[in-house]
Design brief:
By secondary structure, the chain is mainly α. The chain has one domain: Monooxygenase (Up-down Bundle), CATH 1.20.1280. The protein is 85% helix and 0% strand. It contains 4 helices and no strands. The N and C termini lie far apart (54 Å).
């Protein structure tokens, strides 16, 4: 039974993380963050960080892996958002 639950967790983690990759790729390629909200990404980052902490507390590998990768992807976007804000 727990294997099925972990499998669902892994599928969810993969899908939610992979869904974020096209946005990161576009920002990376164009170096443009026009129309993107710094506030939204800061709040999102905090939420994902808390999900990671929660995953660590309950020892959920899918939650840990998915949120760790999403944090890295979010940091890339935040880097470009902050760089854009500081250069204006």
């Amino acid at each position: 039974m727990s294997f099925n639950i972990e499998l669902i967790g892994f599928i969810a983690a993969i899908l939610t993380t992979v869904a974020f990759i096209p946005q990161v790729y576009k920002v990376w390629q164009t170096k443009s963050v026009s129309g993107m909200s710094l506030t939204m990404y800061l709040i999102f980052f905090c939420g994902v960080l808390l999900w990671l902490v929660y995953g660590l507390i309950i020892n959920s590998l899918p939650m840990i892996m998915g949120n760790a990768v999403t944090i890295v992807l979010t940091l890339i976007i935040l880097y470009f958002l902050l760089r854009s804000k500081w250069s204006n």
